[in-house]
Structure formats: C-alpha cells, structure tokens
Request: fold
Amino acid sequence: MCASKTQHSPSHFDFKAMGSPCTITVYTGDALIAINAIQKATAEISRLENKFSRYIKNNVLDHVNQAAQKGTYVDVDDEFISLLNYADTCYQQSNGLFDITAGALRQVWDFSQNNLPSDADIRDVLQHIGWQHVKIDNNRVHFLTPNMELDFGGIVKEYAADSAANICASHDIQHGLINLGGDIKAIGPHPNGKPWQINIRDARNPDQHKGVIELYNEGLATSGDYERFIEIDGQRYSHILSPKTGWPVKGLTSVTVKAPQCVIAGSACTIAMLMEHDGIDWLNALGVECLWQD
Amino acid sequence: MAVTKKSIVKTASIKTDALKALMGAALALPGISTAAEQGYRSEDIEIGVHHSEYTESGDRMTVKADQLSITGPIAQNFEANFSATRDVTSGASPVVNFLDGNGKPQQFLETGASIKDQRDIYEGTLSYYGDNSLSSIKLGTSEEDDYTSDYFSVSHSIDFNRKLSSLTFGYGHSDDDVWNSYNPSVLLEEPSIFNTRQKDEFHIGFGQIINKNTTLQLALTYVDSSGFLSDPYKKSFVVDEAIFDFRDINIDIAGIFRFLVDSGAIRFLNNSGITKILNESPLISIPFLSENVLGVTKDNRPEKREQWISLLRMSHYFKSTNSALHTDYRYSDDSWGAYSHTLEFKWNIGLGLGWQVSPGLRFYSQHSAFFYDTFFETIPDHGYLSSDYRLAGFGAFSKKLEISKEFGRDFTVYLHYEEYERQYDYEQGGQTNGDPLDDFEFRTFSVSFDVRF
Reply:
C-alpha cells in the first residue's frame, strides 16, 4: 500500500440549507466513502437547522423562545447548553456586544421591507434585550424578563460547518471543504498537501476577488453588510444590529476571519462588525488573521 | 471602491486569553468535541506541582516525593514534557528473619542507623500528533546513592476504523547500575559490590470504542530483565549454614538479636567505632562469620526474569450520574513464579462546578517466587534464595479516594489518598510461601496543582 499514489478525486455536493447555498467537497479515492461522508454531514447540517433555525415552527429553539416570550424557564439538552455557554463566552469577550438575546430586535427590523422602525419601537424592544437576564442552572434556562428572544446567528451555521467537517473526518475523509453560505471549514490540507486557497469576494463587487486566505484544517467566516441590508435614501442599513442602540452597526463594510474553528471565525467577525471602528483592533488583539473593508 | 486590508498573525500558535476562552467554549460543543476528544494536542502550556507522602506501618519506611512537570506545544504537531522528581526515603526496611526459641521466624529491620535515601529522576518526552497517530519518545534517568538507571521508551499509536479502534506498539529499555552504599560502621553490612542489570519491555495494546459510552482496552506487555536482580541489602536465614541448629539447643537467636538491638549494644558497637574496626580488620570478616556462624546468607536471585502482563480494561460512562466506571483486570505471569492477579475499580464522578470525586478499590493477589521462603533449612539445589517480603505469597487490598477541583479553565487542584493493607492470608487460590510476619499497611497522601497558560 502506498498512500502517495492514492488518486484523490473530488466529490461535490451542492444543496441549500440554513437559508444559503452550500457545498460540500471531499477528496477521496473511494466514491463510497465520499457518498457516505457527504450523507452523514448533510444529515448533521439539517439536524442542526431543524433544531436551531428561527424560521422553523415547533423546533427546539421555538420552544425555548416561547419560554423567553413568557419570561419563564425551559429545560434543554446538553448541546443547547454548550451553545449557550459558547454564546456566554462571546458575550464576555465582546463586553456585551455579542448578545444572542438581540434576536428580539427582529420584531421591529424587517430587512425584506424598506422601512425603518421608529425610535420608540426600538426603545421598547431594547428593554427586553440583555444576556444578563438569562440564567443557566444545569440544564434549565431561566428568562428573568418576558418578551425575550434568542437568535443563534453568527454561531449555529458556523458550528454546523465544524460539526459536518468533523463527521467527514471521522468517516475517513482527509481532504475536504465544507462551505455553508460562505462559512467554511477545511478538513486537512488540499490533496496536494498545501493549504486550501480561499478567494474572498469583494463586498461591493461580488464578481471581484479582494484577497486570498489559506486554510489548513481551519475555519473561515465573513460578516458584512452586502448580504442583507436595507437601502433608504442612499443610506445602507446593515443587518447587523447593535444590542446597545438597537440600530444597525456602522464602520466596517465586511470582515473575513480565519480561526481554528469556523464557529470562532463566525462569532469573531460578528463581534468585529459590532465593534465598528474598533473591530480590527479587537481582532488583532484576539490574534486571528483577517481581511476587511471599511 | 472600498479598500481591502489584510492582517496576518504570524504566530498562530500563541493564543491570546480571549481566543483561548473561545476555543475552550467551542471545544465543549458536542459536534466539535467528538473529533477533539481523541489525541488532539493541547495548545496550552501546563505546569504541574506534585507532592506526596507515603508512610508504612510499624515505624518502617516513609517516602516524601516532590515533582515538577511542564508540558507545552512545539511547532505545529509536537508536544514536549519534562519532569523532575525528588523523593526522600527514610526509616528502615526488613533485612532478615531470625528464628525465635520456638523455631518461628521473626522479622528484623536494619540494625544500624536508619536509612535516608534520596532519589532524583529527570524525564523528557517528545510526542508527535499525526492525523491519525500519536508517536512519542521518552528519555529518563534516575539517580540514588546506590542505584542509577538510564532508560528510554518509544511508542506509536494509530487510530483506524474511523477512529473507533486504535493500536499501540511500544518498546522500552533500561540500563541500571546497582551497588550498596557500604557503611563499615554498621554491623552486618556487606562490603561494596557493583553490578548491572538491564530491562527490555515490549508492549502492544488495542483499544476499541464499543459505543458512545463504552470503551474496551486490551494490552500485553513482555518484560525481560537480566543481570544482577538480587537485593544487596537483604539476607536469608539458612539453618544448615549456621554453626549449629539453634533450635536443637533452644537458643532464641531472634530474642538475642532483639535484646542486642533494644539494649543499645549494637548501636554502641556501631557508634563507638568497634564495628568499623572489626569490618576493616583483615583478620575478621563479619559477613563470613554471620553466614557461617549465624546462617545469614546473601539474597541470591536468578539472573533472568521474564514477565508477561496482560490487561483488560473496560470503561463505561453513565450519563445519568455524569460518571465513568473503569474496571481493570491484570494478570502477570512470571518466570520466577511470583505471578499475580489485580482487580481494580475506579469511579470518576463529575459533581459539576469543576468538582470531581473518584473513589477506587484494588485487590491484588500474588503467588510466592519459587526461591522465596521466610527462612530456609538448607540452600535449595538451584542455589537461589530470597526472603524479600515482596516475593512472598500474599494479598493486598487498597482503598483510594481522589478529589479534584477545576478553577476556571486554568487551574486544577488534586488531592489523593490511599490506604493499603497487605495480609498473608488475603492470597487467593491456596496459600503459598509467606507468613503474617510480613503483613503491613501503608498510607499515601498527595496533593497536586496544575496550571495552564
């Protein structure tokens, strides 16, 4: 047996999940291994989408948000708790800017309509935002005030990319890329042994590339105002909303971050956007490679 | 058009506190941790400080040990560990069994000043984390007043079958120098000797994840020791070697020796320099006299020993109690005949908030070596003899408790307590050579601190 002579041919699978176009690419000499890995990985992605999507009724997140709405408590599983713990770490590390309870702002901001909410509406919603109003006791989540809402944006899609990549790796895939709408996790290096070369699109000119980031078993995520926004009177309003002001953030156009895990890249670029002009300094202090446009 | 800027961190292996916090929380996510749990290198530098105290019953040995260990990542895939240990042994250990007036053996500890031995151990390990493998090499040296050991070992594990199975191969070798720290001022000490011994160890292990909560491990180790394997401080009493059979003339040698020790006569001989003069006199050889008058004969063991040690380990995680039960059964076959069975249980219970409690029980049963006896009527035909209690038939029961507490992700404290009780009649499957005179107990208490940066 000689590993270096193994022919690695790519298998691609394109699908739509978590509201985004997704691609899984794996390189292996055995098509059955590729199919098996892709099946298991897509099953994991849809499991996480079904569990944590805000757009699915009666899923786990919906049940939790019903308790959040009433201001009561709810029991959740270990995975949910570990995601809340992760969100808590992001909250601590961003001085409260990354706050999954900011989901309540979706009640007044609708990015499919070209309307701005009123200051009064925003002030009203802000009263129900604040991670400090959520207490975790073993597997029980307490919402200390009503009308709250959790939103795992910037975490779950990225976590799904990591988890899918791990599933591929545990099914004998040594080279591959998981791309969930721009949230990317690499499995090992490219079959040629070199890091994956990821072209980063220009935020305002999507046909153009603005740079390359190399990935070796690492994650990459981008946050920017080109994905979803409202434009009113020539002013772009980003879909990234500050939990402090209730208004879209200003400052950076887009940020791409590379980190050991995609979930870290995802939350780090969201935090950088929330920090506006201080975002890049924060990323530099964090010690991650990034690419940005301001 | 917006200008694109890039910021590259060159030293990706140096993690800031914020990134470490995010990494820690991310690695706790189940989809990420499943891949991380097996053989992923820690990115932290870990420093451990360990202190333990071992006390035997009946004013025998106490050992105090201190250890400092440091582990850290190097480059992309390597991890290095270095540890330094110093232990200090004091007290006395059994030397010979004399017969009392009834012909029953009685144990005698060192007759002179109690021993105080210091041992320094330095060990370095370099590990390489491959995609589906872990390789490591260890070098070590251990030094005492009367013993040095230089050793190395290599091991290689590979994961396969989608990381559900693993195979480990290992080899180790040690070269030891043995001598006795001869003190001519102490009665019954042997003149200096210098000898060597070698040990080769081959290991093969197989691990299998049976399901999410259960793992099984099988391992086989072959140990081949050769050279001077005797204990230069230990003696056996051989009736035929004595000038006459003291039992026939009703002389209580054990009683006489106890009187000489208790009355301070031997201490007087040693301290006054009389022992030294006698030992250094060309006319008298105390070892010769003690062998040919009293029958006190040197410990003499075969120059080769082969052991086969097989291990079966089952670990099961109980989700309801957040605990894991480890059950080990070990059988050690021995060309000296001192084969043994060990059954051990350890239960790790996570109590939340970083607390973990691990009670454990171990039962050990050993058959006596073919050349062991508490005393000998005559030197056996094969010429080997030993009355070292460690080669006797016996059983032992240990109770352990370990408590650890993690403070944040960076600091862990461990407390460990063990009570060991050795009894001649605990031996299973028929009693072999041995005697309750070698029964003893010990306690160990240790405390460790681990800090991660």
In short: The CA atoms of residues 198 and 213 of chain A lie 5 Å apart.
